[in-house]
C-alpha cells in the first residue's frame, strides 16, 4: 500500500497529522483501530493525518485521551486551527491535487490558481493590515498558492476550466504594473493546451447562475465533488445528488460566458490600459 509522505513543515495542520500518524505507528495501531478508540472512522483518521481535515477541539481532546498525551494534541490543535485557511479548505486541497478536471468560477478577485506572486502578496498584506490574519498566516497563504500552482504541472496535467466574473479583471489590486503582470498571466494561462479561460461579462445580468465562487472537481475515477465557501468555513460536497445540479449550472454559465477568444481579447484590451 502506498502511503502519502507527510511534511510537518507545510502547515500546523500538516504537523498535527504527521504527529498523529507517528504516534499511531509507534503503537502499531491501524487507522481503524485508532478510530475505534477515539469514536471516529478510519477514514476520518486518514483525512486528519493527511491534512485533508483540520482537527476539531473534540478530535484533539480524544487524541490526547487515546495516546495519554495530556493536553498536547489540544494545544497543537489550537495552533492548527489558528490558520489563515478556512475549515474545510485543507481537505479540498487534498482532492484538488488529485483531480483530473478542475472547474472554477470566481467573483471579485483573480483565483489563487492563476495569481501572480505580487498580486497574491498584495491581497495577503491587505488582510494583515485589516487585522484579519497575522504575518505568519499571510506567508502561509502565499506559500500554499505557490504549491497549488506547482501541483498543476504534473503528468498528465488536469484539465482546468476557469470562468472569471468581469469584476475580477476590473478590480484594481496594486498598481498598474501589478495588474498588467496579472492580466498577462491570464493570457499565458489561456494558451496552455489543458486550460480553458472565459469571462462572464456584466451584461449577463440575472442569467449568471452563481452569486458566489464555486469549484467542481472530477477525480480520476470520474467521481464529482464541489467546493464553496461562506465567511466562516469551506464546504466540500461529495453527494452526487447535490453536485450534479451544480455541474449543470456551471455548464450553463460557460454557455452564457464569452468564448475564450472573446475573453482573451477583453483581457488583452484591459492590459493595454494598464501600461
Description:
- The protein has twelve helices and six strands.
- By secondary structure, the chain is α/β, with parallel strands linked by helices.
- A six-stranded mixed beta sheet has the order 3-2-1-4-5-6, sandwiched between helices.
- It is globular.
- 31% of the residues are buried.
- The mean pLDDT is 90.
- This is Helix-turn-helix transcriptional regulator.
- Residues 20-73 form the HTH cro/C1-type domain.
Q: What's the short story on this structure?
A:
It comes from Streptomyces huasconensis. Residues 20-73 form the HTH cro/C1-type domain. It is built from 12 helices and 6 strands.
Order of helices and strands: HHHHHHEHHEHHEEEEHH
Return the average pLDDT rounded to an integer.
90
Helix fraction, binned, reads: 40-55%
Task: Note the gap between the termini.
Answer: 54 Å
Largest sheet descriptor = 6 strands, mixed
- The CATH class of the largest domain is identified as Alpha Beta
Name the overall outline: globular
In terms of DSSP E residues, the strand content is 5-15%
According to CATH, the homologous superfamily of the largest domain is Endonuclease Chain A
Total tally of structural domains: 2
Q: How many DSSP H or I helices?
A: 12
The total of beta strands comes to 6
What's the CATH topology label of the largest domain? Endonuclease, Chain A
Find the structural class using helix and strand composition: alpha/beta
The residue ranges in which pLDDT falls below 50 over 5 or more consecutive positions are none
Query: Biggest sheet, strands in spatial order?
Result: 3-2-1-4-5-6
- What is the gyration radius calculated from CA atoms? 20 Å
CATH architecture of the largest domain: 2-Layer Sandwich
Protein name: Helix-turn-helix transcriptional regulator
Pfam families: DUF5753, HTH_31
Amino acid at each position: 500500500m502506498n502511503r502519502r509522505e507527510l511534511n510537518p513543515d507545510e502547515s500546523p495542520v500538516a504537523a498535527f497529522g504527521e504527529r498523529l500518524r507517528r504516534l499511531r505507528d509507534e503503537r502499531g495501531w491501524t487507522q481503524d483501530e485508532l478510530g475505534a478508540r477515539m469514536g471516529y472512522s478510519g477514514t476520518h483518521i486518514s483525512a486528519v493525518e493527511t491534512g485533508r481535515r483540520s482537527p476539531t477541539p473534540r478530535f484533539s481532546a480524544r487524541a490526547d485521551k487515546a495516546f495519554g498525551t495530556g493536553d498536547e494534541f489540544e494545544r497543537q490543535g489550537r495552533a492548527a486551527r489558528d490558520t489563515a485557511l478556512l475549515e474545510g479548505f485543507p481537505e479540498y486541497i487534498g482532492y484538488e491535487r488529485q483531480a483530473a478536471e478542475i472547474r472554477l468560477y470566481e467573483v471579485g478577485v483573480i483565483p489563487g490558481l492563476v495569481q501572480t506572486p505580487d498580486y497574491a502578496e498584495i491581497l495577503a498584506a491587505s488582510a494583515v493590515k485589516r487585522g484579519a490574519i497575522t504575518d505568519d498566516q499571510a506567508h502561509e497563504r502565499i506559500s500554499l498558492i505557490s504549491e497549488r500552482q506547482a501541483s498543476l504541472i504534473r503528468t498528465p496535467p488536469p484539465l482546468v476550466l476557469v470562468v472569471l466574473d468581469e469584476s475580477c479583471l476590473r478590480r484594481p489590486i496594486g498598481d498598474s504594473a501589478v495588474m498588467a503582470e496579472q492580466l498577462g498571466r491570464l493570457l499565458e494561462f489561456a494558451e496552455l493546451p489543458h486550460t480553458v479561460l472565459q469571462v462572464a461579462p456584466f451584461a449577463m445580468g440575472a442569467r449568471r447562475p452563481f452569486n458566489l465562487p464555486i469549484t467542481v472537481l472530477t477525480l480520476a475515477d470520474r467521481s464529482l465533488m464541489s467546493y464553496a465557501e461562506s465567511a466562516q468555513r469551506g464546504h466540500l460536497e461529495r453527494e452526487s445528488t447535490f453536485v450534479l445540479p451544480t455541474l449543470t449550472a456551471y455548464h450553463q454559465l460557460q454557455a452564457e460566458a464569452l468564448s475564450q477568444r472573446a475573453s482573451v481579447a477583453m483581457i488583452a484590451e484591459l492590459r493595454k490600459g494598464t501600461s
